[in-house]
Protein: ABC-type quaternary amine transporter
Amino acid sequence: MSAETTEDHAADATGDVAIRLDGVRKQYPDGTVAVGDLTMDVRNGELVALVGPSGCGKSTILRMVNRLVEPSSGRILLHGTDVTHSDPVQLRRGIGYVIQAGGLLPHLDVRTNVGTVPKLLGWESRLWRRRADELLDLVGLPPGEYGSRYPHELSGGQQQRVGVARALAADPPVLLMDEPFGAVDPVVRERLQNEFLRIQSELRKTVLFVTHDLDEAVKMADRVAVLSAGGVLEQYADPSTLLSDPANEFVIRFIGSDRGLRRLAVTPIRPDDLDRPTVLAEGDGVGYAATALEVDGRSWGVVLDADEVHPLGWVSRGSVTQAMRVGARQGTVGEWLRPFASSIQQTETLRTGFSMLLAQDQRWLPVLDGDRYVGILTPDVVHTALRRGTPGHVEDDD
Ligand SMILES: Nc1ncnc2c1ncn2[C@@H]1O[C@H](COP(=O)(O)OP(=O)(O)OP(=O)(O)O)[C@@H](O)[C@H]1O
Structure:
């Protein structure tokens, strides 16, 4: 086995693989097969979610990576090295582990909880304290206010954040997270997810995380592994592929009939898809505007500033026609425009855009790149974007 390991080490050292599960099986002493014969890779800097019904082996998989559970057979390679050849204590210090409700030590204050691993690694007090404070800042808990509190003096969401800070303390390249945002209400959960995504975009850790929540997996993960009972890998794909092209009946049932809605969350707004009504400049005369809008056929147009870059609002065909009627032929569009009620950045997803359309009872929403006008999002645009990515499915769903 050691010869094989050396070979693999050489192969993986040049590759992009951070965690490799290679034919991994776990049978508990009572005969339960938690994981059958699992082979999958997690790439460096990738955020991978493990999802599947209760009892399908998700936590067992995670716990085998940091050797809280030993596999019955197969190999787990971490950056090319078989974890069973590592000292478990050393191994765990190099892997951040976040569990539900933070898993904090109740008798230690927050700062000391965060500094646990650096302390164990022998860092001087001044250094681990400074590191703990940096991380508390990173997770949005000012250390002056929270550092000396005890875990029971924090809300569930704050405890989770401390748990994440603690896992990051020794700057491990790999993080394992077991239902990290599970024990909090939906609003706090969403905030924690967004915060974690922000942190991940800076730190680019390799993250393997377990969740019960498919929407969380789809929102957070670069790739999602869907498992069925006995740790069988049914599909391993990026969220968009998973939702638009489920591999089999099990995956279709697991992701549910509202997968079209879920796909909104992973489909970006594409400038090419946007609607492009007539664009007018604020200085255009109402006569010109009335003609342009009539030719376009829509009942309204977008008004940009004199440079035709920044959106100022919109005018209705009715209002410019009315302006003509009341003898305001010399007037400009700028005098008749109405400001946009809201707008959306093109970096957002269709889900955010669609939800804004619904919330504000609007049929259209201007899309911006910074403060530049890009186009208009409408329900039709959402529909077209979803249809394009779906091989033959969405037409039937509608
Ligand atoms: N120590 C153990 N001894 C015996 N069986 C176990 C042990 N730990 C877990 N199992 C069993 O192994 C299977 C997988 O458990 P695991 O906790 O990995 O599943 P999971 O997918 O994380 O479940 P959940 O989503 O409910 O947390 C289950 O059938 C569970 O009952």
